[in-house]
């Protein structure tokens, strides 16, 4: 009770609505796993994915984020590159359909033709409801990707409510445009007009549908910065009449304090790009400290950065973590699990999937045979969930770096009553000695990296201090 009162006072001091705190039954040390349902198994179905749940539970994740599960539009459906499905006329390209009875070109998961249905490719609504119920029974929360910025061109709103969409000077509905008024290249979707109050109401009702009918625990909000922040505030206020939810913004551009804090967490995009640059020796660890310090000042203490080395966008468009980070991927993964915020794992990451997954076509992660990766990420999940100091709370959402003269070394500490975790990361390709005295305590991670007071290239050392 005392902790709840302290949290309440902190939120009031920051001017945040009390009801928009992290749900009380939310994991204290959350680990999010992004599920790319179409690629996770050869079948790409709900039924096939259910067989994977025990592995994910054993891995140690406790929040599942499902990429959109709704039907995908057929009109202007993307096939590959800038080609639409209707542009594909080569018989060899179409043989997949003849053989399987389905198109190999499934389109973008973010081109939704009906917000309140399940894509038949995945299965049925009843199957999805059962999946969510099973996840809850295993102690895992479930959030759904919500695409609020645009719809498919054959969404019913297009014909029934054309004024719910953005139009050009000639009265034609447009795809999403950038600040200069030019196409962003998302030509398979139509941009929604948030100046229309009726559209907003309909959108909120569709969001509530998934909470009321499927008992979802929240949403990951796609391109959240392109949707007015006051909409997310209003949506959360209305949805929480049903149950408390968790909201993750694919954005770090919203001023969450100004707009009352509809989101519990945000994407650490800037930090992710810095990690990529440090891996290639284009930036030093001092940039990590600088970015984290700046984010801590910008965002309220009860809003958390989501840390990652890969996700669906990075994997498909910019390459696997092995392509982008080389031998540094492992120490960067350790950083994401020990730094303030919430760590993310992506489909296949726990098996070292070394493959760019196709964005518009059916694909499958590489065979799940490499247990070395699974063991490594299992140890990270165990570290995260067993150490109170690595949890998420306004008190713990802080950054305490131990100064080092080495630009390739990052040392920081996370502490709470009765628990202190000390982290030393070698973010360079040379063997080094920690620049400060290594504290006494139990080595939680990094035995294989630390010998004779030396830390191996791209090595790590995590100690529970006495």
Outline the structure in words:
The chain has 466 residues and is α/β, with parallel strands linked by helices. It has one domain (28-398): Alpha-Beta Barrel (TIM Barrel). It is built from 15 helices and 18 strands. The strands form five sheets. An eight-stranded parallel β-barrel has the order 1-2-5-8-9-10-11-12. The longest helix is centred in the middle third of the chain and has 18 residues, at 197-214. The model is unreliable at 1-19 and 95-101 (pLDDT under 50).
**Tally of strands:** 18
Q: List unreliable stretches of 5+ residues.
A: 1-19, 95-101
Assign the CATH superfamily: Glycosidases
Distance between the termini: 28 Å
Q: What structural class should be given to the helix and strand makeup?
A: alpha/beta
Number of helices: 15
Main β-sheet, in a few words? 8 strands, parallel, barrel
What is the class in the CATH system?
Answer: Alpha Beta
Q: What is the fold-level CATH name, i.e. the topology?
A: TIM Barrel
CATH architecture: Alpha-Beta Barrel
- Counted up, domains total 1
Brief summary of the model shown:
With 466 residues, the protein is α/β, with parallel strands linked by helices.
What is the topology?
Blueprint: H1 2-13, E1 32-35, H2 37-40, H3 46-50, H4 53-59, E2 63-66, E3 78-80, E4 83-84, H5 91-100, H6 125-137, E5 141-146, E6 150-152, H7 156-160, E7 189-191, H8 197-214, E8 218-221, H9 229-239, E9 246-249, E10 265-267, H10 269-279, H11 285-298, E11 304-307, H12 312-318, H13 321-325, H14 329-338, E12 342-346, H15 371-386, E13 409-416, E14 419-426, E15 441-445, E16 450-451, E17 454-455, E18 460-465
Parallel strand pairs: 1-2, 1-12, 2-5, 5-8, 8-9, 9-10, 10-11, 11-12
Antiparallel strand pairs: 3-4, 6-7, 13-14, 14-18, 15-18, 16-17
Helix pairs in contact: 8-9, 10-11, 14-15
